[in-house]
Specification:
Elements: H1 10-15, H2 18-34, H3 38-49, H4 54-60, H5 67-106, H6 125-139, E1 143-144, E2 150-152, H7 153-156, E3 184-186, H8 191-200, E4 205-214, E5 226-236, H9 241-256, E6 262-269, E7 272-281, H10 293-296, E8 305-314, H11 316-321, E9 330-337, H12 338-346, H13 352-355, H14 359-363
Parallel strand pairs: 1-4
Antiparallel strand pairs: 2-3, 4-5, 5-9, 6-7, 7-8, 8-9
Helix pairs in contact: 2-3, 2-5, 3-5, 4-5, 6-12
């Protein structure tokens, strides 16, 4: 901005003359009138009323004028800015009304059209699938067990042989209610239900625990911070890894068909020993190494397989923690994600579709999954 001066500057005053200001207003009004959409209106507002617009720059120069010219030019610029603002406001109202009318026209419904049937409601497919999975185990003699979602740290970690320095106990992996020292958290798996079942039920024990769990995962195509699991526990005399494998193979064949490809991999979990991961062949790229889809597949990340769940023989330390003699009894446990089961079973390619609440996604499943 120019420094104030006490001398009359004819050249500077001529730049802020009535003719110059009128030209600015005329250009602004013409541009405003030609704006046909709200986006165009925003561009015009920035160009003719923003901080770098001609009228704004002219307003800054008033302070550099001699006292004799300040009042006249200030009034002239003020009136010009007012005229531009009034034109912008009026044009905005017209464009908003035009946009709203277009939306109403596009979404109008003829309520007089006769309807010959009522649309069926639709339960969420995750709810239906959890019930179907539970039915598979009930048919095998298992019982349904339940537990709280707000859980004790002891049941969620300590009783399951998680060491004190295990990464899962950190706040970046677990939702603690107050702090890591509070002893209360949102359960990270449904395994605490297994602990409660072993404390409360008579042996032998055969239970499955479907429910909602919480982890600090980012929402993407294959992960969500709030998801569902179904976990199973069997504690009896003489149980082996062969019993576990037969149980999960039966579940996979019931849910996905006899032709499903299953892969078992050695793994590690604090609460089972030995442990294994159960993978199913990717339902998107089909794990075809010859296909260009494999490297680009978001579902499996180019692996050709997607983890379905973990399993293993119950660690003797877990049995001891709940008062069961590991010299007499053995057990196996497993856990599967309901969301991933739905992805395999129904070809859902993005887990975000399950949580966005779009009725068009839910309605596709109807009353069944």
């Amino acid at each position: 901005m120019s420094a104030p001066n006490k001398q009359y500057d004819p050249k500077q005053v001529s730049d802020l003359s009535a003719e110059a200001i009128d030209a600015m207003v005329s250009a602004a009004l013409a541009a405003i009138e030609s704006a046909d959409t709200l986006d165009q209106w925003k561009e015009v507002r920035l160009e003719h009323s923003g901080d770098r617009s001609p009228i704004a720059l002219a307003n800054r120069e008033i302070g550099a004028l001699p006292p004799a010219a300040k009042v006249e030019v200030g009034k002239r610029v003020g009136q010009a800015r007012g005229a531009i603002k009034a034109a912008l406001d009026q044009r905005e109202l017209i464009l908003i009304e035009h946009r709203d009318n277009e939306v109403l026209l596009a979404e109008k419904v003829d309520v007089t059209v006769p309807v010959d049937r009522s649309l069926k409601g639709a339960r969420h497919p995750l709810t239906t699938l959890m019930e179907r999975l539970s039915d598979v185990f009930v048919a095998m003699g298992y019982e349904i067990a339940e537990g709280p979602e707000l859980e004790l740290e002891w049941a969620n970690f300590d009783a399951l042989n998680f060491p004190k320095d295990h990464p899962a106990r950190m706040m970046q992996d677990t939702f603690f209610v107050e702090s890591p020292d509070s002893g209360a958290l949102l359960r990270t798996h449904t395994s605490p239900i297994q602990v409660r079942a072993m404390l409360e039920r008579e042996l032998p024990i055969y239970v499955v625990a479907p429910g909602r769990v919480y982890r600090t995962d980012e929402l993407d195509a294959t992960h969500t911070p709030v998801f569902h699991q179904i976990e199973g526990l069997a504690v009896d005399k003489g149980l082996t890894m062969a019993d576990l494998r037969g149980t999960l193979n039966h579940l996979a064949h019931v849910m996905f068909g006899q032709e499903i490809d299953i892969r078992w991999r050695p793994s590690y979990f604090p609460f089972t020993e030995p442990s294994a991961e159960v993978d199913l062949r990717c339902f998107v790229c089909l794990g075809d190494a010859e296909s260009d889809l494999l490297d680009q597949c978001r579902a499996c990340g180019g692996e050709g397989w997607i983890e379905w769940g973990g399993c293993g023989m119950v660690n003797p330390r877990v049995l001891i923690a709940v008062g069961i003699d590991p010299e007499v009894y053995s057990g196996f446990a497993f856990g599967m994600g309901i969301e991933r089961t739905l992805m395999f079973r129904s070809g859902v390619k993005d887990m975000r579709d399950m949580v966005e609440g779009d009725v068009r996604f839910t309605r596709a499943f109807g009353l069944d999954s």
